[in-house]
Amino acid sequence: MGNWFIGCGGLFGAVGVVSGAIGSHILKTRLSSVELEIFSNAVIYLLVHSAVLLVCGVVLAGNNNNRWFKYAGILMVVGILLFCGGLMLRSVTGIPAYGTTAPIGGGALILAWLAIAVAGFAKLGQSR
Fold this sequence. Notes:
Layout: H1 2-25, H2 33-62, H3 67-93, H4 102-122
Helix pairs in contact: 1-2, 1-3, 2-3, 3-4
């Protein structure tokens, strides 16, 4: 599962860079300032969470039995797709319904971060 997260993190990172370039060079003249801000924020979240997804993959590549990082990675993928994808589609298409996935995706991202926290705290007593 670790390699899958590494692959997804790399793919999402590439999509984030391409999306940022499209936003800066093409969409800035085609979207309202509000839509462009929504799009830009989605790109930032996409890039940040892509990097964290890579970390989840690297951790799992070294220890595939770490269930909390598995949960975190799965939740990151779901969160990226629903939060970032929903906001980007909403801003580009102007269809507000796409944005309705953002709260679910945001919740998944929060849960992913909490799973990482649990993974860290669970190891506190085991470190030497």
